[in-house]
Amino acid sequence: MTDRAALAALTAEIVECRRCPRLVEWRERVAREKVRRFRDETYWGRPLPGFGDPEARILLLGLAPAAHGGNRTGRVFTGDASGDFLWAALHAAGLADRPASDRAEDGLTLTDAYIAAAVRCAPPANRPTTDERDACSPFLEREIGLLERLVVVVALGQFGWDAGLRAFGALGHRARPKPRFGHGSEVAVGPYRLLGSYHPSQQNTFTGRLTQPMFGEVLGRARDLAARPAG
């Protein structure tokens, strides 16, 4: 069973992180200045911990919170178009109890799934630096280590794919040569299986590069792998 107290302690540590001055300044400025459509809301304006079922066998790994999505709502992939796409797909796959979510306190729950971002603060232009990426890496490594039933990591985009491989490497599991990312890519790394999907950003979903059936196939594969007996 997952050490829930340790996972909760890690969550508290992530929320208080101020390691990256540029990200701290940006996330807090966005939370103060807001945008017109959310001007009456109180923004979260802090790093985002992972969210989901502590007994999850499936981890979905994205890039970073959106400035007016997770940075506003306080939960990863919540309050933006990427989240709208993601929650609908997770609900269709039986991993979420509802198909939509727009705030962190709405009671949404996940079953057998956990969601995290490789970088926990919203970065300017959605582009963290290498140093910022590396400063966040230990959080993901510890989350993976604490999710004791974890079998499958679904990487949402190239950034998530690379972050997953780095985290596995830090935990002593390396794939050589480095596996290439692609939608539907799959590779075994130590005790884990890494699956690739295009990121559910508007750039991909609005253009049809990523559709619900395409993403549903990846989630179905993740569920099949997670259901296999150990060994």
The CATH homologous superfamily corresponds to Uracil-DNA glycosylase-like domain
Described by strand count, sense and barrel closure, the largest sheet is: 6 strands, mixed
Shape: globular
Q: What is the helix/strand order? A: HHEEHHEHEHEEHH
Low-confidence stretches: none
| Residues in helix, % | 25-40%
CATH architecture group name: 3-Layer(aba) Sandwich
CATH class: Alpha Beta
CATH fold-level assignment: Uracil-DNA Glycosylase, subunit E
Spatial ordering of strands, largest sheet = 1-3-2-4-6-5
Beta-strand residue percentage: 5-15%
Number of helical regions = 8
- Radius of gyration over alpha carbons? 16 Å
Tally of structural domains: 1
Number of separate strands: 6
Report the average pLDDT across residues: 96
Distance between the termini: 18 Å
Helix-strand category = alpha/beta
Fold and architecture overview:
- This protein is α/β, with parallel strands linked by helices and 231 residues long.
- The chain has one domain: Uracil-DNA Glycosylase, subunit E.
- It is 39% helix and 12% strand.
- It has eight helices and six strands.
- It has helices spanning 4-15, 21-33, 70-73, 81-92, 130-146, 158-170, 202-205, 212-227, and strands spanning 51-52, 58-62, 113-117, 152-156, 186-189, 192-197.
- Strands 1-3-2-4-6-5 form a six-stranded mixed beta sheet, with helices on both faces.
- Strand 5 (186-189) and strand 6 form a beta hairpin.
- Helix 5 (130-146) packs across helix 6.
- The longest helix has 17 residues, at 130-146.
- The radius of gyration is 16 Å and the shape is globular.
- The protein starts with a helix and ends with a helix.
- The model has no long low-confidence stretch (mean pLDDT 96).
